[in-house]
Design brief:
Length: about 250
């Protein structure tokens, strides 16, 4: 997952609203959102290379999602897959604050990441780069491949769009969020972040929706969570075709 926009306790009905894009190499094998056979309480897509996930929910109302921290100089050799952090959070038997505190003791075991995990009562953020466990307060947030609420153009544009869509609160909210996630406009050079990759790559990675020959946005996901229901909608983009998976979980 390379962009997660979310509103926590900012809507009268939905305590958590998520709009997210997963960016990945097109050749990496992936399964769309489904209830896992080996963990039927989990609803999530699945990376079929490492068997983890980038985002998911559980039947009892738990949520977790992850983005990678962009650092082209980082050596990931011998480190664990970040996708197991999300599936681990979704399957953890204790409270998720404890899970995050345990992760803080294993910072060097994983390449750089941003992790969200929680439910409608408590939501936490932790990065092994920022190294600070945060309890999320009510508000509008965005995280891409830097730290939470960085001033990257796609994060700023996404947060503004999410806030506007929530304020309108109309029946087209799901489609409006998918339209926001589909924004493929590149940011002007003068406001691009400098993350150690080439200027050409910074341009290519700057939109909310990424397109290139080998790498880009593979799926978009919109989730609405209330005390009564989880509404989970995923759109997968593959070989010029779009497929949609939609689920509703009663809580």
């Amino acid at each position: 997952m390379c962009l997660i926009l979310f509103a926590y306790k900012k809507h009268p009905k939905y305590q958590l609203i998520i709009a997210a894009n997963r960016d990945e190499f097109y050749k990496r094998p992936t399964a769309p959102a489904h209830f896992w056979e080996d963990a039927p309480e989990i609803l999530a897509g699945r990376d079929l290379e490492k068997m983890g996930t980038w985002m998911g929910v559980t039947k009892d109302g738990r949520f977790s999602a992850l983005t990678n921290y962009r650092n082209p100089r980082e050596n990931g050799e011998g480190k664990k897959s970040r996708g197991e952090l999300v599936s681990g959070a979704l399957q953890y038997q204790g409270d998720l604050k404890s899970y995050m505190e345990e992760l803080a003791q294993q910072d060097a075991s994983y390449p750089g990441y941003n992790l969200l995990a929680g439910d409608l009562n408590e939501l936490f953020y932790y990065s092994n780069i920022g190294k600070k466990l945060m309890a999320i307060e009510p508000g509008i947030y965005g995280v891409s491949n830097h730290l939470l609420n960085s001033n990257w153009p796609k994060v700023q544009r996404g947060k503004e769009g999410l806030e506007r869509i929530i304020a309108l609160d109309n029946s087209s909210m799901i489609e409006d969020l998918f339209s926001l996630l589909a924004n493929a406009e590149q940011a002007p050079d003068e406001i691009l972040p400098k993350t150690g990759v080439s200027l050409e790559m910074e341009r290519m990675l700057s939109p909310l929706f990424i397109k290139s020959e080998e790498y880009g946005t593979r799926s978009s996901t919109v989730v609405f969570m209330s005390a009564q229901e989880i509404h989970y909608v995923e759109r997968v983009f593959s070989n010029g075709k779009t497929s949609t998976q939609e689920f509703k979980i009663n809580l």
